[in-house]
Amino acid sequence: MPEVLKSTYGLVGYPLGHSLSPVMHNTAFAELGVDAVYQLFPMTKEELAPFFASLKTPYSPVFGLNVTVPHKEAVIPFMDTMSPFAHKVGALNTVVITPDRKLVGHNTDGPGFLAHLTEEGFDPAGKRIAILGAGGASRALITVLCLLPARPHAIKVFDVDQERAGTLVRDLSSRMDTACVEVVAQIDDLHIELADLLINATPIGMKPGDPCLVQETLLHPHMMVYDLVYNPAETKLLAMARRRGAKAVNGLKMLYYQGVLAFQHWAETQIPDKVKSRMWEELQKASIY
Fold first, then answer.
1. What's the pLDDT at 287?
2. Of 86, 104, 118, 215, whose CB count within 10 A is highest?
């Protein structure tokens, strides 16, 4: 008989040194008395296929995963099925591995982002939104915003890879109404000075030497600046936003909300409020303020 291993969950991406996901999920396992562990699975794109093939084996201890940059789109071919929302997004961040070793893809980034916006009191209806980046996270944000009954007035997207940004919008347009979404060729065309919400959906800002993509003079007191980067807690962009009197928000609470939803997909049940509170407490302790 093979050795019985502890049930394992984890995060697939590269690099992963910045991640606080293990803190949150291992806290939940401890609070619930579940004999499981959440760990990091750093891997390149070339390593994805053999890893996901190993998940199909009957003795694999892995029963759930999160997926982060740069693999949120690349892992789709390995799924047996996907939730309707993940299919619309064309990217996923959560994988459930069923007892019969089927892989089910979900996307909790979009709902997690929307939950945080709601908590912050920001209503996207009729607003002008500027987005930096056209990766998997941007896909989820644009999708959830376009599916709202009362949608933003305009969503402008810029990525240094213009072809990637164009492909994103064309792909989403095949599955939903994206009439309010426009890809722009230059960062100036985002018209950040007119935006109600500026979102950094790129990893730029994680490293101390990273540049800031936005001119400080474009930021203003009547906008929210939302940086999905949460480590460091205050990026150069958020520091500039505070100096300009804008509301500055990092991605830690989005990480929390998407993590709670991911955990509930794995457990197939709601998490008690006291466990959610402990997850958030430990995330705050682990973050760099």
1. 87
2. 86
Tell me, yes or no, if the pTM score tops 0.90: yes
Question: CB 84: neighbour CB atoms within 10 A?
Answer: 10
- Report yes or no on 53 lying in a domain: yes
How confident is the model at residue 288, as a pLDDT?
Answer: 63
Which residues in 30-49 are b (16+ Cβ under 10 Å) and which e?
ebeeeebbbebbeeeeeebe
How many Cα atoms sit within 13 Å of 251 on the Cβ side? 29
Containing structural domain, residue 68: 7-107+253-286
**Section 27-44 average pLDDT:** 97
The predicted-structure confidence for 73-88, as pLDDT tens digits, reads as follows: 999 999 999 999 999 9
Q: 1 in a domain, yes or no?
A: no
User: Among residues 72, 88, 127, 276, which one is catalytic?
Assistant: 72
Whether 72 is catalytic: yes
Give the 3-state secondary structure of residue 64: strand
Instruction: Quote the distance between the C-alpha of residue 81 and its chain's center.
Output: 20
- Do 87 and 149 fall into the same domain? no
Tens digits of per-residue pLDDT, 217-243?
Answer: 999 999 999 999 998 999 999 999 999
Name the nearest CA neighbour of 266 among 36, 78, 112. Answer: 36
Is residue 122 domain-shared with residue 30, that is, in the same domain?
no
